[in-house]
Specification:
Bound molecules: iron/sulfur cluster, FE2/S2 (inorganic) cluster
Radius of gyration: 29 Å
Strand order of the largest sheet: 2-1-5-3-4
Structural class: alpha+beta
Helix content: 25-40%
Number of helices: 15
Largest sheet: 5 strands, mixed
Length: 570
């Protein structure tokens, strides 16, 4: 028996819209999507609605009916009173494209961030039989049709756009759970889920479970078990011992090591730091000549930093001499040398320097920058008098600093030697060991399980170079931008300290693939020609050429003069 259904349908686009009243003739047994189609056919030919299967299997027709997230094709009209006006609106959590169609690409981005299923490398098909209980556990989660109704209803992102970057949402919590519960998977995603994908923000209201058209018990079977697993890892030492034994047979790789660069690129944060070749993860190589780098090197500007307190017009007490381990004349071709022992010592010294450089870069990226990024979204580190540090953090440990060859936690309440693995160092400091992977692709080449190799003399030289660089940058900033001098930033991606003034980068790097020793650089954003410019990214000079920060400033000033277009005399 047919009747006239009163409908209110949201019409509009990203610029705004309103509810429009319609009366549509419908038949008993029809679903809301039928009514919408009849509306399209008879009164509103330009009404946008997305659908495909009309069978509750494609997940396309998600919308909100009387404020509740539902599939249009699976919502029978018979659940409403014939006299009732039903209101159909687009999913509120996602940006509207038009009428009932929303842009759900947020979910695809989150899907890309999930490290994929990774079975042991040597496992051949047929080598392993899964228990039925394991099959059933993941089968429930595989029923998901990606309608994103659970994402739509979740209050963590429904009214809080700001939570989206750091929150995967219930649909992806079940994906992480599915993979974590798979007996053959070798990747440990728990830390990533908690620290970077916002599992802790879910307070188990179960709204997601209520709206799931596949009746997946999202909270009971995925979210709560994952929360328990995270708690086990963090707070149950005995469980940790047992797990270590158990996992010795099938080790799990922390997910943070597998992150791809897609997310970082999408964040746009890659461009936040100077774009330059970075030290490769390969073992330390013998001395070699500086190799050419891509033209893009250092073309990207260092973003302006917040106003800094006025720096002295000339750098104060900096140690007047940098003594890198490698002097320019040392090469592996020691046949030209009459003193093989000296050459061996030089190579050993250089190896120690490069290992120390890589280790300190790893600490900066995995321990300091990762922690800071997760705490306040920033990756800007600062050079201190005796090392480098995060800025103030909004929560414990409040601040992390490398001082010489120690990691200082908080206000000196814990001093840990830079020794052992990165992951143990971070655990002892009470923080996660993971790079700020959503800001830029991990660049130090260090993994949490790698060991640090820090030579005291090399660390002293390296930190002294950064200190001189910081002082020289401050002097430049004060001289050329006295009203609002930019604060020098130690970028964890390239592990160099720098500033930008008038579209030219100035800084000091402890060494990288471009120049494998400490060097000062001037990098105009637009390439310049001439003898001064000896690198694809601009000009670089080894720190051995400079007696002190004043000498580096002189080099910066010459770079500024060379980079400034000459105006013809009038
Ligand atoms: S249970 Fe958690 S994920 Fe599900 S809707 Fe509530 S807060 Fe969101
Ligand atoms: S879990 Fe359920 S509600 Fe969420 S996307 Fe999958 S099918 Fe839809
Ligand atoms: S049209 Fe496919 S789920 Fe509704």
């Amino acid at each position: 028996m047919g009747y006239d259904l009163k409908m209110r349908v949201w019409r509009g686009d990203e610029n705004g819209g309103d509810l429009v009243d319609y009366t549509v003739e419908v038949e008993a047994g029809e679903v809301v999507l039928d009514a919408i189609h009849r509306l399209q056919a008879t009164q509103a030919g330009d009404l946008a609605v997305r659908w495909n299967c009309k069978a509750g299997k494609c997940g396309s027709c998600s919308a909100e009916i009387n404020g509740r997230p539902r599939l249009l094709c699976m919502t029978r009209l018979s659940i409403f009173e014939p006299t009732e006006t039903i209101t159909v609106t687009p999913m509120r959590t996602f940006p509207v494209l038009r009428d009932l169609v929303t842009d759900v690409s947020f979910n695809y981005e989150k899907a890309r961030q999930v490290p994929p299923f990774t079975p042991p490398v040597n496992l051949k098909p047929g080598d392993y039989r899964m228990q039925q209980v394991d099959v059933e556990r993941s089968q429930e989660f595989r029923k998901c049709i990606e309608c994103f109704l659970c994402q739509d209803v979740c209050h963590v992102i429904r009214d809080h756009e700001e939570n989206k970057p750091s929150y995967a949402g219930p649909r992806f919590f079940i994906r992480y759970a599915e993979l974590d519960m798979h007996p053959l998977d070798t990747v440990d995603r728990k830390q990533m889920l908690q620290e970077e994908q916002g599992l802790g923000l879910c307070n188990i209201t179960k709204c997601c479970t209520e709206v799931c058209p596949e009746h997946i018990k999202i909270t009971d079977n995925a979210i709560i078990p994952m929360k328990e697993r995270v708690v086990d890892v963090k707070f149950d030492p005995w469980g940790k011992v047992m797990r270590t034994r158990r996992e010795a047979e099938q080790p799990r790789t922390p997910a943070a090591q597998l992150l791809t660069s897609d997310a970082a690129a999408a964040e746009g944060a890659v461009t936040a730091a100077p774009s330059r070749t970075v030290l490769s993860a390969a073992p330390v190589a013998p001395v070699k000549a500086a190799k050419a780098t891509p033209v893009a090197a250092r073309a990207a500007p260092v973003p302006a930093a917040p106003a800094a307190p006025a720096a002295p017009s000339r750098p104060a007490a900096v140690t007047p001499h940098v003594t890198p381990h490698v002097t320019p004349h040392v090469t592996p071709h020691v046949t030209v040398s009459h003193d093989l022992a000296d050459a061996d010592r030089a190579v050993a010294s250089r190896t120690a320097y490069m290992q120390t450089l890589m280790s300190l870069h790893g600490v900066a990226e995995l321990v300091l920058a990762g922690t800071q990024r997760r705490a306040n979204r920033s990756i800007k580190l600062v050079v201190t008098g005796d090392g480098f540090a995060t800025g103030p953090l909004p929560r414990p440990p409040w601040r992390l600093a490398v001082r010489g060859t120690d990691l200082v936690v908080g206000d000196d309440w814990l001093v840990l030697p830079l020794h052992g693995t990165f992951v143990d160092l971070a655990a002892n400091a009470g923080v996660a060991c993971a790079p700020p992977a959503d800001a830029y692709p991990p660049a130090s080449g260090c993994k949490p399980g790698n060991r640090m190799h820090i030579d005291h003399t090399a660390a002293t030289d390296l930190l002294r170079a950064l200190k001189i660089g910081d002082a020289a940058c401050r002097a430049m900033a004060t001289a050329h931008a006295p009203t609002n001098p930019p604060e020098p930033i130690l970028w964890p991606e390239h592990f160099d300290v720098g500033i930008t003034l008038d579209a030219v980068n100035y800084g000091v790097s402890p060494g990288d693939d471009s120049v494998p020793e400490a060097y000062a650089y001037v990098g105009p954003h637009t390439a310049r020609k001439g003898k001064f410019w000896n690198q694809p990214f601009g000009a670089a000079r080894p720190m051995t050429e400079f007696a002190d920060a004043d000498a580096v400033v002189a080099f910066f000033e010459e770079g500024r003069r060379q980079a400034t277009p000459k105006t013809p005399a009038t």
